[in-house]
Fold:
Amino acid sequence: MHKILLALMVVLAPFSVAQADEPQAIETRKMWARATIGQSLTTAVYGILENQTGQDDALVAVSTPVARMAQIHRTTMNEMGIMTMDHMEKVVLKDGTFVVMEPGDIHIMLMGLEQKLEAGFEVPLKLEFENSPARQVRVMVYPATTKFGDVK
Ligand SMILES: [Cu+2]
Structure:
């Protein structure tokens, strides 16, 4: 009896340790992609990234099998009143905070889509972080006229 119990503990111990140490994931909420317009094969993904992991983190890479390239962008208005988009290396996610990706601000740009995206489609998206494990999320495609508040 004693021997069996001991053997069991040896087998179980590494699992329980691994589970306790398993890093928390960054939460995503209200993720959506805008339907493409006309013949465009470019669109943007928006949503909320929330860090309750207990440590600072950052979104550092995005990819999807349905587009040649996915980049983190930020839309800004220059002094001429012209909107431009800048490529961001990462989105900083301080512990205990969230970042809203919305039209006119931070977004994930999908370029070189395999096909036009219609409302109701789902786009698989891989999000990679500096510290937390990578996440695979499914992003719903909403009509091109959608505003951030429309997404439940
Ligand atoms: Cu962009």
